[in-house]
């Protein structure tokens, strides 16, 4: 049931600190501060030359974030595809490499077909699924479950952040197995992960500010989302979330791509949501923001206290998230991104949990 919430989506957004915490507890041993996978992997990450990640929609954006993590923490090249492309592309896979599939339902037709293709190619298959009895779970060599609990809202929220938690843990395990991370590095990263539920809860307290902002957004015809590094896939996710439930056209772009085209769209009528935690690419994103401001664009900046102090642009609205020491910002920044889409849809009066033309689980091609 919806508890005291108006929509399942609201309930599911608010459940995130708890369910991400459960997921964390399944993958991290709190006592030793080590990543501890609940299953034994049938391969050694040292032998993996390339990972391919395949999924659809929001799950593919979780995969896109994970690409950055695997490459950075474990130095494994990752190829990412949406399942509908992967399944027909006949991508050459190297026997013994690893293919990861991400799916909340575990029943998405294209993702399942991609899994079957990968199995036939002789690679190890690992799926990150929320429904352990699903077809994708049953047919995968290894299953890592997200403990999001049932997700009812068609727009995926808590499944996404739980997927990120599992993938972050797996990337740390991979880095450790390959000797890219020391014990000390692992402890530091684990500390970062353990902080996430608390930081997500802090992000939820920004709701009144976001609700107010949603009233402005609801008047727009188009919204642009920008991000760099792991905030780039989150920008894609933000745009998807907004369009699927509010029916406002939105696009996510890598901030650095702005001047290669989309900057032509900038005027005072199109809000630009910039996702920019104070990280190693922050300065670069700020310079893209300056380009937007110089063309009269209205900026909504999602950052932390440090970023808010350093951003030398007059932004329309700044949403200040808690400071974070780790590289796992997407789990926390997902919260304002989801809330913005949710409240915009509520203002628009759309059917938030059952948006038109959409099904929760896409079991046909
Ligand atoms: O069940 P799955 O995770 O495989 O579903 C994948 C997509 O259909 C799903 O994430 C879809 O994009 C959502 N409606 C996004 O909110």
UniProtKB/TrEMBL annotation:
Record's catalysed reaction(s): D-fructose 6-phosphate + L-glutamine = D-glucosamine 6-phosphate + L-glutamate
Name of the molecule in the record: Glutamine--fructose-6-phosphate aminotransferase [isomerizing]
Organism: Bradyrhizobium icense
Alphabetical GO biological process terms: carbohydrate metabolic process; fructose 6-phosphate metabolic process; protein N-linked glycosylation; UDP-N-acetylglucosamine metabolic process
Localization per record: Cytoplasm
Active site: 360 (for fru-6p isomerization activity)
Residues included from the entire protein: 244 to 608 of 608
This enzyme's EC code(s): 2.6.1.16
Residues covered by the SIS domain: 41-180, 213-355
